[in-house]
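Side project, low priority. Logging it here so it doesn't get lost.
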Amino acid sequence: MADNTTPRAITCKAVVAWKQSEALKVEEVEVDPPNSTQVRIKMLYASICHTDITCWICSTDITRFPLIPGHEGAGVIESVGEEVKDLKVGDTVMILYVGECGECWNCASGKTNLCSRYPLIISDDGTSRIYAKGQRIYRMFSSSTWSEYAVVESNYVVKVDPRMPLSHACLLTCGFTTGYGGVWKELKFEKGSTVAVLGLGVVGLGAVKASQILGASKIFGIEVNDMKRDMARAFGVTDFVNPKHSDKPISQLIKEATGGLGVDYCIECTGVASLLNEAIASTKVGVGETVLLGIPAERKAELSYIPMIQGRILKGSNFGGVKIHSDLPKIVEKCINKEINLGDLITHEVSLADINKGFLEYMKQPDCIKVIIKF
């Protein structure tokens, strides 16, 4: 007699990028059951990140095609592998792209959130369990959330507190958490510090909010889009600076506003290579620190040597240094307590069928902060 409880392949809809920079298509795909350590998730919400665009236009040595994009999302577990212990069918969950085993050298060191047992997978390793038109479709990172069903290694999955709306939870799976953690986890932040945040998208607003909560005395928000001014101030920016309104470099504008000193900390969220040196030069000589959070479309930037030998510190970060099991629940709690209002960041909503409108149209609109996909 057949075992009707054994998970079977599911036919559903997913967004597929067949070639680099080619228009996205909604295709019928087949999603295999999870293996012993994976879970299969029915997606309820996903969101669109600029990193999705970067990977879509990147050369194939970074991204493999055909590809199902998307790395931010939340849903409900439909089936689990036999070795999965802490998750069960019916759990509502967030899908992350970094893991945390708690036991490897990296996790035990307390120095990084990048687990060596469950690493960040930038390019699909060829083990995707999704197929379309007779061929395997590669994943973006370890997830590919722009599909009605996704199969994910269970360690990259975190349960959602039932008090947290899933539409808000998906915003914590990359952008906002990256910015928030870039201040909270990557800096030894002192109350009264001065901060400059370059780029006021979701990542930048996360950095702004963390700076406010940790007691910054001044938060400079650097943004070329004046339509983001009110949102920036609502999240904690004290001084909104649009560098397009001046012929002076950003670093000079910040120094002039800080008595010639510069800020204690600069958080670079744009990924614009030409702004790297401006971010570093915006900080104080001898003690200034800059954290890089933006993902560049350009992979090379010339680093000016002089600002570095003046004692400044430059640090790279992934997911803002946040550990998904140890740290992320603390951010969730602040959202539940209304210290953080993630709902304010959602400016547009689309269905999976309208993905190109969200991806290619809404993301370019000046009033856009975050586009979410409702399944």
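Brief comment: The CA atoms of residues 346 and 370 lie 5 Å apart.
Revisit when time allows.
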